[in-house]
Specification:
The complex is a heterodimer of chains A (about 70) and B (about 525). Chain A is mainly α. Helices cover about 70% and strands about 0% of the residues of chain A. The chains are: A mainly alpha (about 70), B mainly alpha (about 525).
Chain lengths: ~70, ~525
């Protein structure tokens, strides 16, 4: 039974997602685009934080599976 | 045999994609819309579509072949790409976003010269055509195992539908379908892995038989005979970094972000997690495949063990789901064709053949070229299947000819010293070094692509410096005004360092509080 239910669920999810995304793009395209001044952002939103976090992730991941 | 559910899944998925692509036609009015989704994407969406580049059927299957031979090397291929993304987010993208360019090679011309731009274009066309050849090969293997049919028939249908969708909808449609396909694929890869583990006899059997190989460096085996594994391991990282930096298909997804901040965070965060989740099961399937189908039990690239598991151990019903998830990879084939078309349209056609035409004209040319470039990669297939893993030919080509091009991208934004001809000259010198190592009378271990890279990268850097010294002394260095908006403001000496800014902030805050204490502000 699962072999019928699972593909059907995936297809329903696909149709719903596609409809939602189509509507979302229609909205997002109208939004004004303005550059963000990073110095006004809190530390966790700055790109330096994300770059350092990624490097930390690398170090931990490689150490785990060296 | 496939059940009706399998077939419904496959046809509904492919048909849905084609219809869906046509809906996005109304959003496409300019080249920005067609190639960069109108630069509208928030960071999370830019990040997810960046991760979805691994949807490429070849990218999904390549980790299997690499890990069959070299432990977690399949995953490391993508970790290397992510390492390249570090450079993108740190300073390449901020430099590129200043002039709102569409292709990364446009930036090469602004920073260096037309020769560098054309080098960037044609090395990418070469690289992407090999990747598309890999994708066709991967799909062919899947179709052969799942349907027992001639692979060309299945590939043709999948490629035509995905190309139709990409060509009509542009990057909006690619983004839309990739996001869903990515998550479908993510589920599919783990289901595939689950059945692989069951085939071995369960989790305990998997750990006892495969545990020793689930490592990047200390797996059972050698990358290169007689060389410690850590040396090729770092060469591996260096080699695959280029994928993220020179690749327009990758860079355009970051350039599609709505702001520089969205581009940088989108590049940095989501794809790191998503790629590990996506590629890890495929790498593990390669390691499982070595136990189920040891070397010598089949001919051709080791990547085939994943389709073998699909054929021999996955129950009917799930096969359709896995194949549909995998066909998602074929739609990225359209995305790849589109990115090559964007290079040829903007960097060659618009730049050198027909200037000053309307936006509609270039969008139309882009669509026609998307179809044309999708046919070329088939010529690589005989070469690709002669390697022990399907990424073999890509690795060789990348090492010698493509990786050198990443260095001008990395160094260019940081300094105004590097001269106009330094990029082209430096890459030419490095490629000559690469060809000499590959074909010349040197030790066999040096010819390995993961070792050769240690000679190539310094060759580019030294070549660029040497040419800059000569060119800057013969002519004058490039005037700073010409590089405004091309290199980082810091390289032009225009902005204060982050530390200086921070210190000033602290000092002004202290001054403010002192004034407050004295009651100055109260008055």
């Amino acid at each position: 039974m699962i072999e019928y239910i699972l593909p059907a669920l995936v297809l329903i999810a696909m149709v719903l997602f596609y409809y939602g995304f189509y509507k979302y793009i229609g909205k997002v395209i109208k939004k004004p685009r303005e550059e963000i001044d990073e110095s006004t952002l809190p530390w966790y939103k700055r790109t330096t934080f994300w770059i350092l976090l990624m490097l930390l992730f690398y170090a931990v991941f490689y150490a785990m599976f060296w | 045999m496939l059940t009706i559910a399998d077939w419904i899944m496959i046809f509904a998925y492919l048909g849905g994609l084609a219809v869906y692509g046509t809906l996005f036609r109304k959003f496409v009015k300019t080249t920005d819309d067609y190639f960069l989704a109108g630069r509208t994407l928030p960071w999370w969406l830019a990040g997810i579509t960046l991760a979805a580049i691994a949807l490429d059927a070849s990218d999904s299957l390549a980790p299997v072949g690499l890990s069959y031979h070299y432990g977690l090397a399949g995953l490391n291929l993508f970790m290397g790409c992510l390492f390249g993304t570090f450079f993108l987010s740190a300073w390449i993208i901020p430099a590129m976003m200043q002039k709102r360019i569409i292709t990364n090679t446009t930036w090469l011309e602004l920073r260096y010269n037309t020769a560098a731009r054309q080098l960037g274009v044609w090395t990418q066309v070469l690289q992407r055509s090999v990747v598309m050849g890999n994708a066709l090969t991967a799909i062919a293997y899947i179709f052969r195992s799942a349907f027992a049919i001639e692979f060309w028939h299945g590939v043709a249908v999948a490629a035509i539908i995905s190309l139709f969708m990409t060509a009509v909808g542009g990057h909006f449609a690619v983004v839309a379908s990739e996001v869903f396909a990515f998550f479908l694929g993510l589920v599919v890869m783990w289901i595939w892995f689950y059945f692989g583990v069951q085939a071995l006899g369960g989790w305990d059997a998997f750990i006892s038989k495969c545990g020793a190989d689930i490592h990047f460096v200390t797996f059972r085996g050698e990358f290169v005979k007689g060389i410690p594994n850590w040396i090729p391991f770092f060469g591996f990282l260096l080699l695959y970094m280029a994928y993220a930096i020179i690749n327009q298909e990758y860079v355009k997804k970051v350039l599609s972000a709505r702001t520089t901040w969205d581009a940088r965070v989108g590049g940095m965060f989501p794809n790191v997690i998503l790629w590990v989740l996506w590629i890890l099961p495929m790498s593990l399937i390669g390691i499982i495949g070595r136990q189920l189908y040891p070397p010598g039990t089949f001919t051709g690239p080791a990547d085939q063990v994943a389709p073998f598991i699909l054929r021999d151990f996955v129950p009917v019903g799930f096969v359709g789901l896995i194949v549909a998830g995998f066909i998602a990879g074929s739609q990225d084939y359209g995305g790849t064709a589109q990115s090559v078309a964007s290079l040829l349209t903007i960097d060659v056609y618009q730049r050198h053949i027909r200037r000053g035409m309307s936006e509609e004209h270039y969008v139309k040319v882009g669509r026609i070229l998307t179809f044309i470039v999708s046919i070329i990669p088939a010529i690589w297939i005989p070469t690709i299947i002669s390697f022990p893993f399907i990424a073999g030919w890509y690795t060789l080509i990348t090492g010698m000819l493509i990786t050198p091009v990443m260095i001008p991208y990395i160094l260019g934004p940081l300094t105004t010293y590097l001269s106009r001809w330094s990029a082209f000259g430096g890459c030419l010198i490095a490629s000559a070094v690469g060809l000499y190592i590959k074909l010349g009378p040197v030790a066999a271990w040096m010819k390995n692509s993961w070792i050769m890279i240690y000679f190539i990268v310094p060759a580019v850097i030294l070549g660029m410096l040497l040419i800059s010294v000569i060119e800057n002394s013969v002519k004058k260095p490039i005037p700073k005004e010409e590089l405004q908006g091309v290199v980082l403001p810091r390289a032009l000496g225009m902005s204060k360092s982050a530390l200086t800014t921070k210190l000033q902030e602290i000092l002004s805050a202290r001054a403010y509080s002192k004034l407050a204490v004295k009651g100055v502000l109260a008055r």
